[in-house]
Amino acid sequence: MKNNDELRLHGLGVSPGIAIARLKIRLSGATDVPRYLIQDGDTEMEWSRLCIAVAAAKHELQRLIAKAASMPPAASEEICSILEVQLQMLGGSRLMRGVENRIKNQRQNAALALFEETAALITAFNAMADRYLASRAEDVRGLTRRVLRLLIETGNAHAAAENNDESSTPHILISDILTPGDTAALDTLKVRGFVTESGGADSHTAILARSMDMPAVLAVPDLLARCDDDDETIIDGNNGIVILRPSAATLAHYQKVSAQKLADKAALMQLRLLPSLTHDGVRIKLKCNIELPREVPLAVSSNCDGIGLLRTEFLYLNAGRLPDSETQFQHLASIVEAMEQKPVTIRTLDLGGEKLLNLSHGDEDAAEWQHQAAANPLLGLRAIRLCLAYPELFKAQLKAILRVAALGNVNILLPMVSQIGEVVATRRLLAECADDLRASGYVVPDRLPPLGVMIEIPAAALIADELAKYADFFAIGTNDLTMYTLAVDRADEQMVDYYQPGHPAIWQLIDLTVQAAAKRGINVSVCGEVAADPEVVENLLRRGIRELSVTPPSLGLVKQQIRRVSLRAENKTA
Length: 574
Ligand code: PEP
Ligand code: MG
Prior knowledge:
Layout: E1 7-10, E2 12-15, E3 18-25, H1 43-68, H2 73-89, H3 94-104, H4 110-127, H5 131-151, H6 157-164, E4 171-175, H7 180-184, E5 191-196, H8 204-211, E6 216-218, H9 223-226, E7 232-236, E8 241-244, H10 248-270, E9 285-290, H11 296-301, E10 307-311, H12 325-338, E11 343-347, H13 364-373, H14 383-389, H15 391-405, E12 409-414, H16 420-439, E13 451-455, H17 458-462, H18 464-470, E14 473-476, H19 478-486, H20 504-520, E15 523-526, H21 534-542, E16 547-550, H22 555-564
Parallel strand pairs: 3-4, 4-5, 5-6, 9-10, 9-16, 10-11, 11-12, 12-13, 13-14, 14-15
Antiparallel strand pairs: 1-8, 2-6, 3-7, 7-8
Bound molecules: phosphoenolpyruvate and magnesium ion (MG).
């Protein structure tokens, strides 16, 4: 039972900090149709937006009809008749007239107008108790889902709802689940922090929350049943606590804690100008992991040694379609140029697994692989496997990277490598792309960028000796290495106790990798989340790691820890 008493809930504190605000509930799925009204002068523009989505839906339906034509006759007839009815409904039907009226006369936004007109139409069909019309109700629903998806072009209901909600004051977001795409699209000016019912500590959603410096608690059981929109809420991201309807005393306490945390953060910021040296003077390279363009300014001002991991998939998770090579080039160029001549390690697409695209139209290949990977995405066509299976997809990215290599200091990093053949095949594609680009008049450096591999599958660590002959550097991804070694889904809240990056098996694989890199004289870094754990930093350094890459907000804490460690002497200095 909900009442006005203070209630403490516990979950996984995945991103530190205190957030205090009223909450807003946004569920994934149907309730995410944005409910705002538009201005009087914007009705024509909103109607055009709907017409564009309708045109795209017609195009999709026509393509599906053409595909269905090659099916066995009975199936083809059945499917085509449904699709053709849907196609007709997109013409001058009652549905479309109703939607137009709602947009132009009632000033509803296009998604809301379509959603409500559909509901009204279905109610009318049902009232007629006619079996034929009842079956049409399903067709209308299916059609509406298609147009809504196209209309909310980002494919991201949370973001669309948040970003269109002009009246929205800063709040804490409460949801059943936030995908990495939802999280990447959150407006940091409006969302102070978030709490969900599901998710794991090193899920991409959790990593994004840390990168965005947004307090977050995941995996809070029964969360939605305990809160109401507008409840005053406190998130304690350090301790995984969510307090609903806090008492005046609790509120005062957390306001104090919050002020202290801000002061601590400011003090850590001061460290950024100091060199990244251990107490006894060993130089440790400290780089940033970047996922979103909005993180770049913090990385630039952090005085870091470069970008150790530029995840490229997040730029496109909500784009609705795969970006072309030119778009990718523009994005990458802005980051590489901002970093001036500091090294930027660009990881090639790590799509698949948790990171699926919200595709709208025109990407049949991508839609196909997502479908193929669906049976077991984490063990399927993910990352380098996907890129090699769809060379055109891969080449578009490799060409963009080769072009930015002419603008700065670029390295290329391959995710999820498990075999030498993947490195060899990529080198071949890179050479082909460089030839194509030069033939088209683009500038590509004579020496192609160094090509490294992520060590994040146990097999890669076990063959690190061999891999080191083919790769120019290693980057240890402890997040996936933990998941694949321990057979534990990193995003599954039920598996939290089994997800142990500090498991002895992981340390053995790290040791093998460091030894293989040393033998071959190639660089090895750690860019998984453990690199940002102050309690683990010393152990990593003692095992021979000399380069760490962490989210920009955690840089200060890691540097503080590095500066406390003495590697040559046995004793740690406080
Ligand atoms: C990792 O797996 O440790 C890693 C750094 O990559 P990601 O978290 O993007 O999978
Ligand atoms: Mg990984």
